[in-house]
Every structure is written in C-alpha cells, then in structure tokens.
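User: Hi! I'm a student and our assignment asks us to look at how structure tokens line up with a sequence. Could you show me two examples?

Assistant: Happy to help. In each example below, the sequence comes first and the structure tokens follow. Example one:
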Amino acid sequence: MKLPAGGQGLWPAFWMLGGNIDRTPWSGAGEIDVMEQIGREPGTVHGTLHGPGYSGAHALTGETKLADGKMLRDRFHTFAVEWEPATIRFYVDDRLYETRTPADLPAGAAWVYDHPFFVLLNLAVGGDWPGNPDGTTVLPSTMQVDWVRVYSRSR
C-alpha cells in the first residue's frame, strides 16, 4: 500500500472484523487492525487488537516509525499480520514490531480471534482519533493498494 500525502484528519486503514459481527456486537466479534495511520503522523504505523474489555482507547496497540524519518506516503509498503491460535504478530516491510497473545489481555477478558474474519481497506476522513481536516489536509487524497494476499499454513 502507498498511503496518502497526509495532513490532519486522514485515516487510512487495513483491518479485519470478526465474521460474526452480525450476531455479536462490536467489539465482541473482534477487530484486528493490520495497519492504521493518522495523517498528522506520516511516518508512524499502528497495529491494534480490539475485543471485549479492550477496545477503543483501551485497545491492545503498538506502533512503529519508519527509519530515518521516512514517510509512509513516499513509496509502497507491505503491512502484514501472522495470525495463529494464540499469537498475532504485526509487520511493516517484513519487520516485526508487535506481538500479542492472550497473556496481554486485561484480567477476565476473552481472546476472540478463534473464528473467521473478513478484510476491509478504507481511507476515512475525520473522527475522534485523527481529528477533523484542517489547512494541512491534502484533498483529494488516495490510498493505493497494489495487492492483498491471504495465506494459510499447511498443517
């Protein structure tokens, strides 16, 4: 993916939502944010898990910055998760930057990553986290996606 030029209020994301969302309200169905970026942080990528008791501002999240002050808009980057029954690892450009397991959950919270999920890609504008667009916001903006792949390990 090549992310937009940026500015306040832009919110590109590559994420997955639990396939049972029609029967289980968010965040009980689970959400895996493979990649989120907010326009005011053009060199930072976030990876997050949302579930019951750990969502929104209390989600399990990690972030990484590109080396040497580079920006996510400068070239295409590869964002990935490796998702196993009790481990989810987050990568940018083949570099691991976060690992989450059930041990990271708040006491009594459920690990809800044991059922099918579906993929979403979007470029949102505005919201509580990225804020509203302002004079720094580049509009129109685009998020370019070259490919999306899903692999399954043979057992």
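Example two works the same way, sequence first and then tokens:
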Amino acid sequence: MRRVRYESTGGPLFLEEAPVPAPGPGELLVRCEAIGVTLPVVRKVTEAAEPVPLGGELAGEVVAVGAGVTRFRPGERVTGLCFGHGYADFALLHEPMASPVPDGASALDAVALVRSGLVALGALEAARPEPGETALITAAASGVGHLAVQLARARGASRVVGAVSDPAKADFVRSLGADTTTLYGDSSWGDPVDYVLDAVGGELLTPALAALAPGGRLVAYSSGGGTIRAYDLLVGAKSVTGFQMARIARERPELYERWRRELWRRFLDGTLRPAVHGEFALEDAAKSHEVIESRRNLGKVVLHP
C-alpha cells in the first residue's frame, strides 16, 4: 500500500510503499476513502521534535477486524480517529474510536462532519448557550468553525458573528447562517456577544475576550496558546473555559456517542451541511498542508486515496 511520511521536523512529505497492517486486538483495518487534514497534524510536521505518524480522521470500508471486535464486521462503512499512520490506503482504527457511516452519507461527508463536528458541538456545549443568546465564532470558515456557526444557529442563537482572517471568506461564512462577519484585525468586533468559541488562541484571545458582554463566556479550544489577564475577567464578570475533545472521548463515552448521534441526525435532516474545500490525492498531501497553513480553506480539506 501507499502511505505518506516525513523524516525530519519541517521536512518534505513523501509517498512510500509499506505493508498493509494487520489489525491487532480491538482494531479495525479500514480501506481509506477519505482522510481529513487538520491543523494539529500540520503543526506536528512543523513543530514535533521527532517525526510522528500522520494520523487523524478517516472514513472507509472495514476489510478486517482483530480479536475482540464486536461492533463492526468487514464490509461495513466507518469513520473514526486514527492514532497511527492515517495518510495511507489502509489504516487501523481502535474500535471505541470508530462509528458507523449511515446510508445516504458519503465518506467525504463523514470525514467533514464527525470529528470536526464533535469538537464544534463540544465547544458549544461548554459555552452553556441559552436560546436567544448571541455568539461569535473565530476561524469561522475552518473545518470546525463552519460547523460551529451552523450548530450555534441550530441551538437557538439569535445572532451569530463569524470572525475570519480574510474578507474573501465572508460570503462563505454568511452562507452558513452567520448574520455578519468581522476581521481579526478590526478595531472592534461589533456589538458584544454572550459567548465566543475560539479556535485560534494566541494574540486573538484579547479581542475575543473584549467581544464578550458582561457575564459572557469564552470557550478556548485552540492549541495556539495565549494569555488572558485575570483583571480583564474580573471587571466584566467574564469567564473562560478550556475544552478538549480527547478528555470527553476518554472519560465520557456516553456523551461522545450522544453528540455523534446528534451530528448525524442534523446532517440527515439537512440542518447541518459539512463543506469540503478540496480533495487531494495522497501524493499531493504537501499541497493540502499548504492550504491549511495559509488558512485558505473554506471548510474541510480532505485527502482522497
């Protein structure tokens, strides 16, 4: 089979031949039909001290199962998170990280919807939204952000603002249901909102906090770091919550599964529309990373073996 690898930090991605892996206990061997490209994986290539397997989201057909697997059989379609080599023709999924792809949905739909949607929905729930409240979503055109915009609206937000890095993304974000958009560099992000879902971090935390109305909530789910002054929280009685999907998957599997069901329900009834920015062949994985690094994507970037 073919898989994508690199040999040094920041080094070029290349395609190599490798044996098809055999599923171990509790594992599924999946023929990959779609592979999601994410910012955390891109950052690993440029920042990790040593090369790591390029894992992440994938969807495809189960071709073999390891000992102890009870929920899936060969021939079924699944999506899930791969912790090993995922940029490949075949990859391994741990059974708890896999979920079925329903009839009427493609592998592209599954990769664009499930993992990014789980993060978007989890961050939204962490904000404890009430019907009629107002929301601001940063990275609103991203794989997670474009779903968060739609979910905030579906969960009853009366006004949704999308914050983006480029004015060329504004029409796309408004087409998802945002009432308006703002640019990161704008001096003001408009009328204050009740909650902010922030996927960027870093220097953007300051304007994100300033965008909150008194008593507002900021949910930070970015790996971009950043610092907030305690005084800025105190004067506006504002709060900040950190959200991490891995913790939910590990400690709250029943909640993880409930969120998955909601995502598919909203997809099948048409209230949640995952967008795919582009499909790249495995040999063009480096180009897919460039799209993410330059933040040009409108929706999900996908490798399509």
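Here is something you could point out in your write-up. The first helix runs from residue 39 to 47.
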